[in-house]
Amino acid sequence: MRPTPTPAADFNGPLLGSGGPLEAATLSALDHLEQVLRLQPVGTDRFRADSEPGRFGRIFGGQLVAQALTAAAATVTELAPHAIHAMFLRPGDSTAPLDIAVERSRDGRTMSARQVVISQAGRALMTALVSFDTNPESSEAVTVEGSVTASEAHPLLQHWVHRAPPALAGSARTWVDTPPPLEMRIADAPVFLGGTPAGGPRSFWMRLPRAIDGGPVAHTTMLAYASDYLLVDTAFRAHPQPVGYTTHHGLTLDHTIWLHRPVRFDQWHHYTQQIVAAAGHRAVVKGTIVDAAGRHVASTAQEVLVRPITEPSRSDPGDTG
Questions:
Q1: CA 95, CA 185: separation in Å to the nearest integer?
Q2: Amino acid 278: pLDDT
Q3: Which regions in the chain score pLDDT beneath 70?
Q4: Which domains does the chain carry?
Q5: How would DSSP label each residue in 259-319?
Q6: How far does Cα 101 stand from its chain's mean position?
Q7: How many angstroms separate the CA atoms of 5 and 16, rounded?
Q8: pLDDT tens digits along 19-55
Q9: DSSP 8
Q10: Quick one: the chain helix, strand, coil %, rounded to 5?
């Protein structure tokens, strides 16, 4: 049975408290994400986990990053994560369980490091290095001015779905029927929803659709998950060559997050992304995440493989949308 079309008004007005199907689906998606981040211990520093419902034809890379961070944090006490460096090795099946192994690489007085491998059916999908430190409170070295505007004045990401061209309409509808567990607001359509390629940075707003339990690490983990959204699309948007989703694959090779201060991710955060290099089939995108007070809370970087669909497929890493 086809899902009942979501009213266009559900894309433009408030998400929270609307009582519409998009709000219900977004809240359900967050419930499910919290569930897959409750890792099941199966041995010393070993865990098992499930995945979100398939949204991209493979496991979302942000989910794997969040699970790696969750597993690493379970083996560290009294320290906060400050960096995650993840490399995607191959795609995963969202219907099959994941095995997560943590290696205690280093434990010092003020810093610790963990190596995490996430596997499926004996094959590694992702490796990650997660670093922790005491993260003491300090004065702000950098604040971002001029980026904090009325977030809800921008349309929801799903607003652009019903404007997608016919060639993209099928995949576009996924963002309504199986939305991310986030409220995302963006002033211009992403390329995967028919947006126009353009150079320069692009920004959007994001937050969790409700409060969550679990303290600072839970909010950091959710931010790490969300940090993976739209980076591939930014590589398409600003690529120096003419590329598009009907002619090219976009695959994430690696993803890095530096965490500068604690976050409350049930409040608005402003994410600015910009392509900084493109050579051959690879592009590098950097990102800056700022809270509503203008505090720079995290930085990201991602290398993206942008390859013509007509080329033979080898062992592709995980697509992160």
A1: 29
A2: 86
A3: 1-13, 136-150, 311-321
A4: 21-137+144-308 (2.40.160.210)
A5: E-S---TTS-EEEEEEEEEEETTEEEEEEEEEETTSBEEEEEEEEEEEEETTSPP-S----
A6: 22
A7: 19
A8: 889 999 999 999 999 999 999 999 999 999 999 988 8
A9: T
A10: 25, 35, 45
Residues 6+ apart with CB under 8 A from 252: 61, 88, 228, 231, 232, 302, 303, 304, 305, 317, 318, 319, 320
Spatial strand order in the sheet of 269-279: 40-43, 46-49, 98-107, 111-120, 123-133, 80-88, 248-259, 296-308, 282-291, 269-279, 202-207, 183-185
Asked if 59 contacts 100 with a C-beta cutoff of 8 angstroms, the reply is no
Q: Kindly give, in sequence order, each residue whose CB lies less than 8 Å from that of residue 83, ignoring residues fewer than 6 positions away.
A: 129, 130, 131, 256, 257, 258, 259
Q: In this structure, are residues 243 and 278 in contact, taking their beta carbons and an 8 Å threshold?
A: no
* Residue 56 Cα distances to 31, 139, 229, 273, 318, angstroms: 19, 41, 12, 21, 10
What tokens were used for 304? 């993206």
Give first-to-last CA distance, the chain, whole Å.
Answer: 26
Give the pLDDT confidence score for residue 295 in this predicted structure. 92
In whole angstroms, give the CA distance from residue 157 to residue 198: 18
pTM score, whole prediction:
0.90
